[in-house]
Amino acid sequence: MSLARTASKLAFSSADALFPEPRGPRILIYHQVGAGLGRQMEVTEDDFDLQLEWLQANREIISFDQAVDRWDDSDSDGLVALTFDDGYVDTYTAVYPRLRDRQIPFLVYLATESIETGVPLGPVGHADPLNWDQIVDMLGSGLVTIGAHTHRHRLAHRTQGRNRG
Q1: I need a labelling partner for 52 at 20 to 30 A (CA). Which of 91, 98, 100, 125 fits?
Q2: DSSP secondary-structure letter at 129?
Q3: Domain annotation covers residue 91
Q4: 126: exposed, middle or buried (C-beta count within 10 Å: 0-12, 13-18, 19+)?
Q5: Alpha-carbon distance values, 125 to 11, 35, 73, 86, 88 (Å)
Q6: Is 108 helix (H, G, I), strand (E, B) or coil?
Q7: What CATH number does residue 134 fall under?
Q8: Among residues 44, 43, 45, 59, which one has the least CA distance to residue 104?
Q9: pLDDT tier at 163 (50, 70, 90 boundaries)?
Q10: What proportion of the chain, given as a percentage, has pLDDT over 90?
């Protein structure tokens, strides 16, 4: 382990002791399941199955809306909501069957330009977008909530104006 990493871990763990444990539901954020791209917030299908098993045995999985509504409840620390960013096709092929079979609610944030055009989000393979038929099918289950993740999935930037005198 590098010296910088060791020092960082020591500093961050020391800082953790100064702050109280976070309260309220936990929001788990995924990008993809089983895509094999090694991207941030991606897990294998086997790891996702293990996570779901653990969550069902140890936590109460609720919808995102319920998590927001119950944030300040005294028993909210044991609550978990699942979210999936961007609208990748594996949300339908890998995630949805598992959650449907377990009757677990979830939220999908959609970037609609890729759904409209069919052009993958990102420069790498295995990032194909959902299509509208798949989205409608998931909505029919009553388990999914759709959230807006902008049309083009652009990062919001703070623009600083110049004084051109």
Answers
A1: 125
A2: B
A3: yes
A4: middle
A5: 38, 9, 43, 15, 11
A6: strand
A7: 3.20.20.370
A8: 59
A9: very low
A10: 56
